[in-house]
Amino acid sequence: MASSEFLTNKAQGDWAERIVHSAINENELGLLAVQYGRSDSLAAGDEGFEGFYTSYQNELNEIGKLPDILVFERSQFPDGVPDTSSDEVVSRAIAAIEVRSSSFLSNRYAAYMEQRAIDSLAACHRIRNDIVNGDLANLLSGKNDELYRFLLSANNESFKQLDFRRPSWSSSAELRRLSDLLRELKKNIEVLHKRDYLSITPKVEDIALVNRWIQRFGVKHYYLQVFFDKAYLIPFEHILEIAGDSEKEGEVFSIERDVKNQGKTTIKINVQVGQEIIGRIDMPEHYSQMKELGRGRLLFYVTFQGGRGYLDGELLKEVLRVG
């Protein structure tokens, strides 16, 4: 169903695709990027949506999920844009790219998360010192000797691994003070346990559909996560390898229900696993738009115009294995 958030997210996704498309075509790399995936703007409630939805489901069942962009060697099409309605032409692509967008500045996010971890670790050390070097040491030893012994030798790495049940001792002033300190310690440790990386975000429901398309056309597939300052590329096969390694869950990837993707289950892979092929993006202009639904309800949303991505062409060719 159409909503302001849905329309804004779609507009942002369309903008990200334009950034990638232009970044590839404006560089003298011998490559040609062609928009390929569906660009329909219909939403539930629009005239013609039912037919569009049925057609889209039939397409998914037959050939899978179309990637947003196909990349060809430009020398193969010197006279114009390739006809991507032809299976034979599509199979000649050297890469298929699924573009995902994210409403973050990756540099700002990384700096914020680094400082948050520093502050939480400093708080953990302060609380640890207040307990083991003060008059509460014997009290904690008697109540929870395991936690006391842990705190004696705790360091940055061990704090990140620590987990304990928060006590609620209250029979004396000293116990209440100890409980308050351990409550604060628990709060800061929970911060250290939270995911602290931006992610490349393939939806679980898309995995089989993407693979169906790959099996049909035999073209290598990539996910490209576009932020408002950078973009990271990762091969689809690498996504499968990471998601299939349970030991990496919580460290390199997590599986979450994503609010931005209508609550759909999403694999969130640390962007640092990918390749930073666009190291800078000029901020676009943004404009308010209005959409009137059939029953007279108005939706207000944001669209994006302009901006430019500065592509590391040699790195892209290396990742795509183009000579």
Tell me briefly what this model is.
The chain contains 11 helices and 12 strands.
Task: Give a written overview of the molecule.
By secondary structure, the protein is an alpha+beta fold. It has 2 domains: 4-104 and 208-236 and 276-320, no CATH class; 111-193, no CATH class. It has 11 helices and 12 strands. It has helices spanning 4-25, 49-63, 87-90, 106-132, 137-143, 145-152, 156-161, 173-193, 204-217, 236-243, 313-320; strands spanning 31-35, 69-73, 95-101, 199-200, 221-226, 231-235, 253-258, 264-270, 275-282, 285-292, 298-305, 308-311. α2 (49-63) packs across α9 and α5 crosses α6. It is elongated and about 80 Å long.
Distance between the termini: 45 Å
Q: So how many helices? A: 11
The largest beta-sheet arranges its strands as: 1-2-3-5-6-9-12
The arrangement of helices and strands along the chain is: HEHEHEHHHHHEHEEHEEEEEEH
Counting DSSP E segments of at least 2 residues, the number of strands comes to 12
If you compute it from the alpha carbons, what radius of gyration comes out, rounded to the nearest whole angstrom?
25 Å
